[in-house]
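Quarterly update from the structural biology core.
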Amino acid sequence: MRNMDTRIELCKYAHKIVERGLVVGPGGNISARAGDKMYLSPSGFALEEIEPEQWIEVDIPTGEIADTGLRPSSEVLMHLYGYRQKPDMGAMVHTHPPYCIAFTLIERELPIMFPDQAALVGSTVYIPYLIPTTDVLAEAVAAKVNEASSILLGNHGLVTTGRNLREAYYRTQVVEESAKIYLSAKAAGSPVPLTAQETADIAALESEDYRIKLLQKMK
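Predicted structure, tokenized:
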């Protein structure tokens, strides 16, 4: 079985995503790059049910899908176009986090409010609702992957990217926490985000630079 390490790592983060309540049932899809191939969740499976050999191999340059008897996620084009658009992207995580979805029902711009958000995620962009699984959504996401590592999908969910699955997964956690904090603060009053200078100061910290480099290297 080709790239078994990638397949095992995908299983690991698939379980983490479910355990954190970032998807329910057969929702969401994740992928990781290995050379010129991407490995993507199969269609119709809850993420925690997927076995290592069931991740679908797709050739990134040609789009050719390995014949295993299983169909790739219906969002295959979103992942494929993303990898083509951003060559240094190593993973894409698409989830349906409840606070992120709730946030998109009332707001579009998620401000930067706390240090981890500033250091690990930075700015988050927004795409208005588009019909899932379509090439229209895939093209919209691909157009944003070089602009930000986290993309809120109106009335739908969240897409995060990273150099590896660990980085993309942690970004998913941080953005969901950010949406939760924002909604809680807004219910009590007026949220006060970090200023652009405060955000830049955090990004410039040596300790944060070390932590980000470590995050990118580890699995």
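The two ends are 20 Å apart (CA to CA).
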